[in-house]
Amino acid sequence: MESSRAARRNHRARSSRRRPLPYIALAAVAVVGVTAGGTVYVKAHAHSGVVSSAAAPSASASGSREATVEPVTQPTVDYDALLAKAMKSVTPTGDQKVSVAVLDLTSGESATYGGTAFDTASIVKVDILATLLLQAQDAGRQLTATEKSYATTMIENSDNDSASALWRIIGKAGGLDAANKTLGLSGTTGGDDMLWGLTQTTAADQLTLLQQVFGDDSKLSSASQSYIQGLMKQIEADQQWGVSAAADGSKWALKNGWLARSTTGLWDVNSIGRVTGEDGDTYLVAVLSKGSTTQTKGISLIEAAAKAGVAAFGKNGGSSTTASASASASASD
Fold this sequence. Notes:
Serine hydrolase; Beta-lactam_cat; 2 domains; alpha+beta; transmembrane; Beta-lactamase
C-alpha cells in the first residue's frame, strides 16, 4: 500500500514539472526619447504581468526598439518677401524713391525694403541728440540747461538753429560718426561742415538708431532713452504725420524730416519712430524717400509705405492699403 502511494506521489511530481506555466508575458513599459540626430528611440523595461498578444510590441534582443522618422520642420517666414509684397501697393511716381525698415518689437522679426542711401534732412536730429547724450554719459555729466533747451526745440519743433548749436557741441560730423560707430550705425555718414541735413543714411541704419532709443539692448542709459522718447512723443501738431499714419490712434513717437534740394528742386521726405499698430503689436518704423515734386506728395508716399510696412507684419501679413497724407506741414524744415 505504502509503495503504491509513493508511486502516485512520484507520478504527480513528474506531471507538475511537465505542466505548462500560466500564460505570463513580459509587458513592455516604453520610454520614448529623441537622439541629438533626430532619431526616435523606444526602450522597453520589462515587468511581469498577464497581457494579450496584441498588447506586446515586438522588440529586439537587447530590449530596445528604434525607428527613424522625418524631422518636423517649422515653416520659415520670409518677412523681407512679405514686406516687398506689401510694398507693391505703394506706387512711387516720376523720380520718387522710397525705402522702409520695420522691426516688430513683440515678435522680434524685422525686414527691410530698398537699400539706397538717402539724405537724412531733420531725422538726423534724433541722431544728434543720441550722440550728445552718449558723449555726456562717457564724460559722467548731465546735459546743461542750455543743451536741454536746444534739444527740446530741435526735436519737438524741428528747430534748425537749435540743431546747428548742438551739431557744433558734438563735434559736427566727426562726433556723430564716432558715436554712430558705438551705436552700431554702419551706413551713416555725417554731412560736411554745417550741412547736417545732408548726412547720408539708410533705412536699416535708422532702424538700428531706433533700437538704441527704444530697445532693451542699448548703449544709451535708460534715462537717456526715456528723455529722447519723451520728446518724440511731443511733436508739434503740424508735424504729426509720417509713420504715425500706421499707428492706432495717438500711440506713436516720431521725428520727421523734409528738405527741398536746391540742385534738383525735388523733395526729401523722411519719418522714423515707434508705433503701436491696430493688431496691438509695437513696431519701430523708418521710411526714407527722395525725388518728390512736392512735400505733400512726399508725405503721401512715406505714409503709404509706413502702413504697408506695418501691415506686412500684422494679422493679415502682406496686405496693405495706400495711405494719403494725414496732415500738411510747412514748406521748410
